[in-house]
Amino acid sequence: MRIYDLEPGREITILILIGSQSMEFESVVIGGVPLKQMIYAKPVIKNNKVLTFSGKGISANVVLTGKDTKPLIFRNAVFSTMKDKDGKLCYGIVSHAEAVEFNRRDSFRCPVDVPSVAQIGLERDTYNVIIRDVSINGFSFCFTSDSVTAEIGQFVHTTLNDFIDGLFENFTFRLFGLIVREAELSNGKRVYGCKIVQQQKGIETYIAKKERMRLLKQRAKANSRDGRERTT
């Protein structure tokens, strides 16, 4: 599901993450513009002012809940305050990623998409993998080869080695995890979710910096796109 698939009247939750703190605000979809991958939503007003969800270290997300379905989340959405066709203030919300399942009991998972190698179970052999995301207590990965599989309950040992552009910092973490879930992506790849069994010092700092740079890049891209549209 893409964010512009949301129909007018659909209730949404705006989930704001600042470090280890989180805040939630309720809103409603007003309309959408598929070509811009954008929806319009009612603003959150406090003390007669519209709240803005941008700034250093802030991650804004859109969560959908249903009675008989698991919650879905659009991560790292970009919020802009604007006016609708009637001149009323609203949010313009852009998200280029598809919605994914969201478990509120888990820590926020930071997308990384870093190539690595992994040992599975008691095997000494290593396999090429992509570490898809990481949190302070878990990570997920998929094999680069479709012929390799793993099973729930197996232990995984891999290394996250990531250089963050813009900060010129390199981070390395040895990840020891237990596979606790398996799912199939839209492209047919199998993704394995792992619970970290040996905590890594500094991983929370890495996640915060990674998210901050991601938000800055998204905001710069959105501003550049808006600038091009105003000149055409």
Descriptive report:
This protein has two domains: 3-101, Pnp Oxidase, Chain A; 110-213, Thrombin, subunit H. A hairpin with a 5-residue loop joins strand 15 (169-184) and strand 16. By secondary structure, it is mainly beta. The protein is elongated. It has one helix at residues 203-231, and strands at 11-18, 21-33, 38-41, 45-46, 49-50, 58-64, 72-74, 78-83, 89-94, 100-101, 110-120, 127-134, 138-143, 155-164, 169-184, 190-196. It has an eight-stranded antiparallel beta sheet with strand order 8-9-3-2-1-6-7-10. The chain has a six-stranded antiparallel barrel with strand order 11-12-13-16-15-14. The protein has a two-stranded antiparallel sheet with strand order 4-5. The longest helix has 29 residues, at 203-231. The mean pLDDT is 85.
